[in-house]
Design a protein that fits this description.
It is a single chain. Helices cover 12% and strands 33% of the residues. It has a two-stranded antiparallel sheet. Strands 2-3 form a two-stranded antiparallel ribbon. The protein is elongated and about 40 Å long. It starts with a strand and ends with a strand.
Length: 72
């Protein structure tokens, strides 16, 4: 049975550094057009159902704003 994962981004913790975007092998992350309360454009997932759970984005995030969740 194939495992399913989901990228969870803490919008208020994200500072919009964009470091997570190029490390995703499937290019599932992009910058949002909306801002958080601190005034940063934040990362968001696109095509979230395709996440492999490699956690490269979470490891790259200097703010620890990204978590990879195992979806049952």
């Amino acid at each position: 049975m194939k495992k399913h994962f989901r990228v969870a981004i803490d919008r208020e913790r994200c500072k919009g550094c964009e470091l997570c975007i190029p490390v995703c092998p499937l290019h599932l992350l992009a910058m949002s057009t909306t801002m958080n309360r601190k005034g940063y454009h934040v990362s968001e997932t696109v095509r979230a159902a395709e996440c492999l759970g490699c956690i490269k984005c979470a490891r790259m995030c200097p703010e620890a704003a990204i978590e990879i969740l195992n979806v049952p």
